[in-house]
Write a structure and sequence with these properties.
Protein name: Putative cytosol aminopeptidase
CATH superfamily of the largest domain: Zn peptidases
Shape: elongated
InterPro entries: Leucine_aapep/pepB (IPR011356), Macro_dom-like (IPR043472), Peptidase_M17_C (IPR000819)
CATH topology of the largest domain: Aminopeptidase
EC number: 3.4.11.1
Distance between the termini: 31 Å
Family: Belongs to the peptidase M17 family.
Oligomer: single chain
Helix content: 25-40%
Radius of gyration: 24 Å
Number of domains: 2
Enzyme class: hydrolase
CATH architecture of the largest domain: 3-Layer(aba) Sandwich
Length: about 475
């Protein structure tokens, strides 16, 4: 991407965003011949107007953003352009931002344009060649002092989010535990992170018994990923955990519907891996340790059974009530390992954990669980700033007894048709060793879903930008 402040004699597509103005918009002084009547265009949200000046080889695209657009609406407005109107984007494109658009609006616009270039057809045999977006040169004209820095930041945010899209969207015979481990190793090496991966034998030595139990029914070897980002000037240490079930059959409690979408059950892993790429790429001065347990929950003669009692890294025993409540088992070992070996100041885990969270919040908001009010508020504000909303549910100890087991220290599912997300969070809390600043984010409804940008369900990268904002404001 190229940054320019030269708008004279520009040939190509010129994008002119406007805020809504009932008294008619103010035309850009740089382009006196590109005028539009207030009856045709006044900047109303999601409105557009095109002017073509063939003699100057210029196409002016007026974009209406409404009266007071938030970050997400700006991002989606620009993503819509490259996603749905790619024919307008030839070799040269110029985005001209007036003084009405500050740093956040610029970041949202640029990242939106880049996100719109993502396509789901990773395995299509196309009759015609897909558009080569690398050949499109995007210039940004703005009077903002740090414009170039903002553009570079937007590029890196979009790159991490698109990588997260891809991790979730690729099929489970591609994105295996081994694939995620190799992705982490490759990305870590390129960005200066230390990465360790435990296969089955090493995981056994580390006593990651709950993690191994979930994966024992699959031919694909489980991979326990540890990524460490350690900048020299770091003043804070954050731990991240992401659920990496690359495909979830439900185990012997086999799913009776919706299994076709269960490639998305590693959405938490994708969020954490994408966030690690972004954090390292931007050079944040925060130490981050990420644990990503990756397994496939399959079925064969070795599969773990309902009513099994299994060990865990923490030393606590777990009664398996439901083999489809597997994500919390691998997270239990990951949280315990993180707390015991790294002791970060703050811990946040992301997981596509429960249908209960979807039943409560639908597909626009993730469920947040924590006993630390300050951490709750920081995470909420970080999400609100970028349109990744999360909302807290109670973590009262009266829910703890729901997970009591007669035969073991705890059971993995209470077996009742209520409070599923809350009891799952209480289960995870049991393995944090009472950590004072831990939060669990259930992204079952937000990591993978329908949108205007594809005809089928797809990855959203929910949480990647939220984590960036969170760490920048610690």
């Amino acid at each position: 991407m190229q940054l320019t402040t030269q708008v004279d004699h520009f040939n190509g597509l010129i994008i002119l965003p406007f805020l809504e103005n009932e008294n008619a918009i103010q035309s850009r002084s740089e382009f006196p011949r590109a005028q539009v009547s207030s009856e045709l265009f006044s900047g109303v949200k999601d409105s557009q107007f095109l002017i073509e000046r063939t003699e100057e080889n210029q196409v002016f695209l007026f974009i209406g953003l409404g009266k007071d657009p938030d970050y997400k609406s700006i991002k989606n407005a620009f993503r819509r352009l490259t996603a749905k109107q790619e024919k307008l984007f030839k070799e040269h494109v110029l985005l001209v931002l007036s003084e009405d658009f500050g740093e956040q609006a610029m970041e949202a616009a640029v990242s939106g344009l880049l996100l719109g270039t993502y396509r789901l057809g990773h395995f299509k045999s196309l009759e015609k060649t897909q558009k080569d977006w690398e050949k499109v040169k995007l210039g940004v004209s703005s009077s903002i002092p740090k414009a170039e820095e903002i553009v570079r930041r937007a590029e890196k945010i979009a790159a991490a989010q698109m990588e997260t899209f891809k991790l979730v969207d690729l099929p489970p015979n591609t994105v295996t535990p081994q694939y995620l481990a190799e992705w982490a190793q490759s990305t870590g090496k390129s960005l200066g992170m230390e990465v360790k991966v435990f296969g089955r034998k090493k995981a056994e030595k580390e006593k990651l018994h709950a993690f191994l139990a979930v994966g024992q029914g699959s031919q694909k070897e489980p991979q326990f990923i540890v990524m460490e980002y350690r900048p020299k000037q770091a003043l804070k240490h954050v731990g991240l955990v992401g659920k990496g079930v690359t495909f979830d059959t439900g185990g012997l409690n086999i799913k009776t519907q919706g299994m076709v979408h269960m490639k998305c059950d590693m959405g938490g892993a994708a969020t954490v891996l994408g966030a690690m790429q972004l954090i390292a790429d931007l050079g944040l001065q925060v130490q981050v340790t990420a644990i990503v347990p990756c397994v496939e929950n399959a079925i064969d003669k070795q599969a773990y059974l309902p009513s099994d009692v299994i060990q865990s890294h923490s030393g606590k025993t777990i009664e398996v009530i439901d083999t489809d409540a597997e994500g919390r088992l691998i997270l239990a070992d990951a949280l315990s390992y993180l707390v015991k070996n790294y002791r970060p100041e703050h811990i946040v885990d992301f997981a596509t954990l429960t249908g209960s969270a979807v039943g409560t919040f639908g597909y626009e908001c993730a469920a947040l669980f924590s006993q630390n009010e300050e951490l709750i508020q920081k995470l909420r504000k970080s999400g609100d700033a970028v349109g990744e909303r999360i909302w807290p549910l109670p973590m009262w100890d009266l829910y703890k007894s729901e997970m009591d087991s007669e035969i073991a220290d705890i059971k993995n599912y209470h077996g009742k048709p209520y409070a599923g997300a809350i009891t799952a969070a209480k289960f995870l809390e049991y393995f944090t060793d009472g950590h004072a600043s831990w939060a669990h984010v259930d992204i079952a409804g937000t990591a993978f879903g329908d949108s205007e940008f594809a005809k089928t369900k797809h990855g959203t990268a929910f949480g990647v930008h939220l984590l960036l904002k969170f760490m920048e404001n610690l």
